[in-house]
Write a structure and sequence with these properties.
alpha+beta; four-stranded antiparallel beta sheet; 18% helix
């Protein structure tokens, strides 16, 4: 964060848990110079402060999920009634 002290009512970039995107929020509650509760400027939803997510973080999570699902095996019942695995 910057050198300026944050206080209630200040605007901050945060992740909205309802919109599921980075948005401008207003600080409602703060402790130890870290926002506790914020309100979204767009949907006005109040929630715990979640730092803004960078696109790089989203890409790495998507890549990890793709890698995880790639290694899962699907069990299929063949026409003869015996189970077989499909990769």
């Amino acid at each position: 964060m910057s050198n300026t002290k944050l206080s209630a009512g200040d605007a901050i970039e945060a992740r909205c848990t309802k919109c599921r995107t980075n948005r401008k929020h207003f600080i409602i509650a703060i402790s130890n110079e870290v926002p506790d509760k914020v309100q979204c400027d767009i949907c006005e939803h109040q929630h715990k402060f979640k730092p803004a997510v960078t696109p790089k973080t989203l890409e790495s999570k998507a890549a990890a999920k793709k890698e995880e699902t790639r290694h899962k095996k699907t069990i299929v019942i063949a026409k003869n009634g015996k189970p077989c695995t499909r990769v």
